[in-house]
Amino acid sequence: MPQMIFGQILGFAATAATILSYQANTQRRLMIWQCLATVFTCISYLLLGADSGFILNIVCLVRNVSFAILKPGSTPMKVAAPILSLAMIVFGIFSWQGPVSLLIMLGLAINTIFLSLGKPQVLRYSILLTCSMILTYNVAVFSLGGILNEGFAIVSSAIGILRYRKKDEKLG
């Protein structure tokens, strides 16, 4: 029981780190905060017995470190993204917990591709899909912090889509 409680607490800590990442003013700082959030998420999933989430977030940690170093939209980034997405699929198969694993596996793999493009508005649209998939996984594994985190990401992305679409309309 203490393991489950500590896992939930770390899930909320991951959410807090994710929220702080959205306040970062550079891609590098954003990715550093995302790395911290991912470490908390990994441990949270491990303690909650969510094997696919645990293993795939280790791959996400490698992705976040790589993307903190690489320039968004660059050739190395474009090469790394499909390799990391494929790694998510492979590790997702090895950590298979049933059909629910498809949600986090595909959600994170797709998110990796869109994150690598360096196009914030396109990423926001993709987050509506990918975070919905990961939200459903979090419901299945009963990760309260994960549910909050993905819900926050969906709402934040929707606001960003509307906010920046209105700016684009004013310019046109």
List the helices and strands and how they pair.
Blueprint: H1 2-21, H2 27-48, H3 51-69, H4 75-94, H5 100-116, H6 120-141, H7 144-171
Helix pairs in contact: 1-2, 1-7, 2-3, 3-4, 3-5, 4-5, 5-6, 6-7
Could you characterize the architecture of this molecule?
With 172 residues, this protein is an all-alpha fold. Helices cover 86% and strands 0% of the residues. The chain contains seven helices and no strands. It has helices spanning 2-21, 27-48, 51-69, 75-94, 100-116, 120-141, 144-171. The N and C termini lie far apart (57 Å). 37% of the residues are buried.
Q: Helix-strand pattern, N to C?
A: HHHHHHH
Query: Whole-number radius of gyration?
Result: 16 Å
Main sheet summary: none
Which regions are unreliable across 5 or more consecutive residues at pLDDT < 50?
Answer: none
The tally of strands reads: 0
Average pLDDT reading: 90
Please state the structural category: mainly alpha
What is the overall number of helices?
7
The best one-word shape is: globular
Strand composition percent: under 5%
**Estimated helix fraction:** over 70%
Distance between the termini: 57 Å
Number of domains: 1
